[in-house]
Amino acid sequence: MPEIKIYTQPGCPYCMRAVALLESKKVPFTEINAPRGTAERDEAIALSGGQTTVPQTFLDGKPLGGCDDLMRLERTGQLNGMLGLS
Q1: What pLDDT is recorded for position 22?
Q2: Record's family (predicted)?
Q3: CA distance 44 to 57
């Protein structure tokens, strides 16, 4: 199973939607609280290649993108394969 990390911010509706999608897949993931101005947010920005919005999702250290990106992967049927689901 791949390692999944998602950087979020409290109260962010996009973050909640992305987390709900991952929870619906029943895959283990780590949610990292990354409000503006924190070291965690700086880490997310660095890992994503400069993306400053949340959520930012990573699969085995590679950026998958934000909420819209995850939803697009889900709609096109690519997300399950990336997560190792059948």
Answers
A1: 97
A2: Belongs to the glutaredoxin family.
A3: 9
- Our count of domains for the chain comes to 1
Output the CA–CA distances (angstroms, integers) from residue 20 to 10, 28, 43, in the order listed. Answer: 14, 12, 23
Domain residue limits at 58: 4-83
Distance (Å, rounded) from C-alpha 38 to C-alpha 43? 9
CATH for 24:
3.40.30.10
Q: Is the predicted pLDDT of residue 86 greater than 80, yes or no?
A: no
Say which residue the tokens 């993306």 belong to: 51
pLDDT in tens, 40-70: 999 999 999 999 999 999 999 999 999 999 9
